Amino acid sequence: MFNKILIANRGEIACRVIKSARKMGIQTVAIYSDADRNALHVEMADEAVHIGPPPANQSYIVIDKVMDAIRQTGAQAVHPGYGFLSENSKFASALAAEGVAFVGPPVGAIEKMGDKITSKKIAQEAGVSTVPGHMGLIEDADEAVKISNEIGYPVMLKASAGGGGKGMRIAWNDEEAREGFQSSKNEAANSFGDDRIFIEKFVTQPRHIEIQVLCDSHGNGIYLGERECSIQRRQQKVVEEAPSPFLDEATRRAMGEQAVALAQAVDYTSAGTVEFIVDGDKNFYFLEMNTRLQVEHPVTELITGVDLVEQMIRVANGEELTIKQEDVKLNGWAIENRLYAEDPYRGFLPSIGRLTRYRPPAEVVEEGHIVRNDTGVFEGGEISMYYDPMIAKLCTWAPTRAEAIEAMRNALDGFEVEGIGHNLPFLSAVMDHPIFMAGEMTTAFIEEQYPDGFEGVELPADALRKIAAACAAMHRVAEIRRTRVSGRMDNHERRIGVDWVVSLQGEDYAMTIDADRDGSTIEFADGTHKRVTSDWTPGNQLAELEVDGETLVLKVGKIPGGFRIRSRGADMKVHVRTPRQAELAKLMPEKVAPDTSKLLLCPMPGLIVNVAVQVGDEVQEGQALCTVEAMKMENILKAEKKGTVSKINAAAGDSLAVDEVIMEFE
């Protein structure tokens, strides 16, 4: 077995590989850029080597710099993680020339299956059903428009060397095909150093289901079930689960056997993933093969008990698989939620900054319940604009899908993140969505269910009453604390009332509190009661309460006259007032937001790639105004209505903060 492995990656996947290597008794080497000098993966590794400036194209994807780090440390093998150099055949060739093992497939398999155009041709030759498309390379935007019309809209423009949603665009008309072609080329060049683009038919209402395969160099190959990855945004997965709630055993076996046959046709070794589009009749079509470890591999590990990173290392060491197909049993259900540094209330745009608070739920491994959090960040660390915005992958496992979902709901409620925008509220909303709960989602789930973006959650009446009762009980505890402050004047004792009005999400709940040593009994105006018990103390930002015997987890922030409460995707201000205060509050005027309708604001911290208009230009609704790049993704900002450009405050190359004014209109 290897004595030392270098991880040619960063963030959570580098930390994940280090954990398995450590378990196997293998020393690890981390590499890092200037931006990652204090990163978690650097701290976890036995050694660390600096490889350059923050941009990935000057550090993590520069083969010569990674090779220098290998020579400096004497690493015998390299695990590439995902992204960066993980599917780069030149990197694998450089390692082979140096006599260093690549913890991944052979160069030939990477070249054949890592390139989406070549892989589709091989799949067709092997008799695998593929999605209609243009398999050749596209020279320019005019050719992209011509081919798109031949295939028929909608079409998908994809980077040949792409992955993780980078370099991908859906086009519904000629204008979008032209814009998407250029943006896809730019993203592909920046992320992978390869700007080749191809086009295929975009199948509407599909499911995205993928098969995990594992092959060794002795001719053995197995599949480890499937992963349902249909909940995606901008072609990037957000929620994954294993197994799929849609597949039956016969379809699972057919997909699995086809995936293994395809892998063995190119002499594949190591872990890999064959992705399929599956329609409503369970017809499946080959999409692509990812010749690396997938981001969502933990859900497969949780239902099979197989450590995929360990198996990859053993296969790279020349060992034969000890797992046969008949040994693979799918046990229970696992769900993964990707926690991203992006603001769901701003159209999921990237958010960077310092994690002033980062408290994941406790990891749990016990019979009937597992909570796992794969992460590469820590409290006080900084989310950089240079890399992918994923903060963590929160996973739960339970014997049934319903139990796994409930475990995930509770884990999300207990996950504390402050300092940046993040998608925790959105993930909580998905876990409670009827379509997800029924297992009937497609890849169009997010755009169909949230067509105007995510604007928060309106909780049902019963949930609001529970939270209102909990907040009343917490307010009483806080009031008791305030009566005990030192330095009070004699004969000025403050008495705590029993009648309160709790206001949240537009509802007012009048109630009376009857407290004892064990908790509080809340009586509502309609005569109903709720019993609240908790050991919460003022200042704690996480409250775990029992309301009528059921667990309620709330994130708690202090605001004047009440709390900022976050629970199950809802983010709300809760005011607890005396009846007289509540009466007067109704007379207060509402604060009106400033008018920004004549301004184009930068929606996220980023770099201006280009400005498409000039002062004096008349723009139409939907017209492209400028392009902003953040976290390796290009975002085209378009006019929301007709107008004339009166002032432009930014130019290509400028770095802007969130809400900075890019241009003004008459």
UniProtKB/TrEMBL annotation:
Domain ATP-grasp: 120-317
Chain ranges of the Lipoyl-binding domain: 590-666
Reactions accelerated catalytically: propanoyl-CoA + hydrogencarbonate + ATP = (S)-methylmalonyl-CoA + ADP + phosphate + H(+)
Domain Biotin carboxylation: residue ranges: 1-451
Cofactor(s) required, per the database record: biotin
Pathway: Metabolic intermediate metabolism; propanoyl-CoA degradation; succinyl-CoA from propanoyl-CoA: step 1/3
Name of the molecule in the record: propionyl-CoA carboxylase
Pfam families the record matches: Biotin_carb_C (PF02785), Biotin_carb_N (PF00289), Biotin_lipoyl (PF00364), CPSase_L_D2 (PF02786), PCC_BT (PF18140)
InterPro entries, alphabetized: ATP-grasp, BC-like_N, Biotin_BS, Biotin_carboxylase_complex, Biotin_carboxylation_dom, Biotin_COase_C, Biotin_lipoyl, CPAse_ATP-bd
Entry keyword set: ATP-binding, Biotin, Ligase, Lipid degradation, Lipid metabolism, Magnesium, Manganese, Metal-binding, Nucleotide-binding
Enzyme Commission number: 6.4.1.3
Claim: NADP is one of the keywords in the record: no
